Amino acid sequence: MLNGGEKLIGEVLGKAKEFEKLRYAVMENDAAEKFAEIFPELAPIAEAVKVKKGTLYLRVENSVWKNELNLKRNILIKRINEYLNTEIVKSIRFK
Questions:
Q1: Phi/psi zone of residue 8: left (φ > 0), alpha (ψ -120 to 50 degrees), beta?
Q2: To pair with 71 at 20 to 30 A between CA atoms, which of 7, 9, 16, 85?
Q3: Over pLDDT 70: what percentage of the chain?
Q4: Domain residue spans of the chain
């Protein structure tokens, strides 16, 4: 808190109920942006397009990799959520 009762913008955005949707959208964006950081080994074959309403959309190089990653879907979701320390990704869709 600043002098005279003023609050820092981070305090307001971090706690105010009115900004809940904004905080969630920022976390979804972080999940998509950090995909390559979380899975550097997948960077040559998969790219996170976006996360929307808990669904991660991945662009995959070909159908073979799409099938392989689909089989590992639960592992991918768990690792992303652990990395971000929140349950932001609930499912994955492949393009």
A1: beta
A2: 85
A3: 83
A4: 3-94
Count CA within 13 A, CB hemisphere, residue 26.
Answer: 7
DSSP annotation of 83? H
Token pair 């009762």 is found at 5
Q: Render pLDDT for 9-54 as a digit per residue (tens, 0 to 9).
A: 556 556 667 777 877 888 888 899 999 999 999 999 999 999 999 9
Tell me the backbone φ, ψ of residue 89, rounded to 5 degrees. -100, 125
To which residue do tokens 């690792």 refer?
79
> How many other CB atoms are there within 10 angstroms of residue 26's CB atom?
12
Does domain 3-94 fall under CATH 3.30.300? My reply is: yes
CB within 8 Å of 77: residues ≥ 6 apart:
56, 89, 90, 91, 92
- Strands, DSSP E only, in 19-54? 46-52
Decide: 31 and 80 in contact? Cβ < 8 Å: yes
